[in-house]
Amino acid sequence: MLVRALASELDERLRGxxxxxxxxxxxxxxxxxxxxxxxxxxxxxxxxxGWARIVSAPDDSGDEADARILGVSAPPDERVLFVELADLAxxxxxxxxVVVELHTNQWNAxxxxxxxxxxxxxxxxxxAGDRTLRIGARYRPPPPSHRYGAGDETREDAWDxxxxxxxxxxxxxxxxxxxxxxxWVSPLSAAPVLGDAARTEGEVELEGAxxxxxxxxxxxxxxxxxxxxxxxxxxFSTPLPGIPSRPAASLLDAMEAAAxxxxxxxxxxxxxRERLLRGARRRLAAAEGRVRSxxxxxxxxxxxxxxxxxxxxxxxxxxLVPAGASVARLPDLEGGQTEIEVELDPKLRPHQNAxxxxxxxxxxxxxxxxxxxxxxxxxxxxxxxxxxIGEAEAEGGALPGWALRALERPSGRPAPKADEGPRxxxxxxxxxxxxxxRVGRSSRDNDLLTFGHxxxxxxxxxxxxxxxxxxxxxxxxxAAPPAxxxxxxxxxAALFSKARTxxxxxxxxxxxxxxxxxxxxxxxSVVVQxxxxxxxxxxxxxxxRLREDPLEGAP
Length: 555
Hints:
Layout: H1 2-14, E1 18-19, E2 24-26, E3 30-34, E4 39-44, E5 51-56, E6 67-73, E7 80-87, E8 94-101, E9 108-113, E10 118-122, E11 126-128, E12 131-133, H2 155-167, H3 174-181, H4 190-194, H5 203-218, E13 225-229, E14 232-236, E15 245-247, H6 251-264, H7 269-301, H8 304-316, E16 327-331, E17 339-343, H9 350-393, H10 401-408, E18 426-430, E19 436-440, H11 443-452, E20 459-463, E21 471-473, H12 483-495, E22 505-511, E23 515-516, E24 527-528, E25 532-536, H13 540-546
Antiparallel strand pairs: 1-6, 2-3, 3-4, 4-5, 6-7, 7-8, 8-9, 9-10, 11-12, 13-14, 13-15, 16-17, 18-19, 19-21, 20-21, 20-22, 22-25, 23-24
Helix pairs in contact: 2-5, 7-9, 8-9, 12-13
């Protein structure tokens, strides 16, 4: 909604004006389109702020504004804004397009040229899933959300769909269902739209919620406001029930007010940047230290064979082991005159000392099986922090959003506070279509997720034939989930498995009700029926893109 309203306001204010046919990028992650009349359109695309403003043109803006703005638009129910330009200085009035992607934690800005939309400049060159956002590549917009209500649906048809889908969903689940299914609903507006329908059953409550959604969908009576939220002012296209707000003359004015409030807060960006970098370096050092420690454990685990040998020596020479002794010198089993000194626990009988050495060997062998996987995870964590620091230390760089979120939490596993509730056995993600994905944290957590935090009709996934996390895609419709959401959830299943380094991974999926636990089976081990398979590439960028982001109110 916010992007739709912003595109409409910018189109009204900028259509027909002259502009420079390129963007100015700054180290603070802003992108500026220089306009005529000494003005500029500035987009702030930092992870902790996001707004568009009309500002004074930079003194060093350089070239003349020799392009004409043909229009500003946004695809229905998408977080992408397009500024269409005609480059009058080029032969034949070359078409140019400024693209601003406003997906939370994936904000970016770029310029394309020509009929094939080749990227000629970009704020943050990167690979976004199967899209390449780099100079010279052909620009491909993010896949559409395909939520209901973004087309030309009639009011009567929309009410039938709303009543049917919401009517078979419990009140507590309705905000999530609305977010996944219906266009123009965001994490910010879902609860206000549902209102009483999120707490009680009833046709009247459902109809009231539908009326609020339909009004948002059509944009009837929209007028910009500043929502007064705990973390500060939030520009929005219309008031939301239950959230205090104050009117604004325009959306751009609302964004200017939010920017002014943020600038008024005492902060030293240089010191804050250094503080974040120090925190990132500490996380890197901790990960590297864990790698070294695990390699030492792995080296020590190689001593299991020697411990088993001590047990064999004791059993072979029980008659030579004195009771209550702390050490015994026993003949080598390989013969000759060599004697081997074996440490003993004086409190144990000789055969119990043998079993104690065997148990030590078994523990080391179990560790030897587990440590390589832990080393791989620790090395991946170190590589992730190393890349984040490199990105931040580059000219104009900043720590990626996942690193900023991680630094907000203490390292290690913090003890839950009394008011935080129990620890969840899963990591939380959300697909591009808004569907919630739950990924088990460990073998025991897999059992808790599958049999305690998943409904029978929800989609269950697991990478085929390898150890890995159980994954639940929260989709209960009898029809198959949308292909894109299914593929993204399957990619998470591949990433959180031992097949994460493979090129292509088969991921099996079924409904949760077809997953069974056999009596006595080890944690995480299940039997699955009616399985289908999807093949995916375990792209780490997908994990970063789908991870739940606290900046839910951003445009």
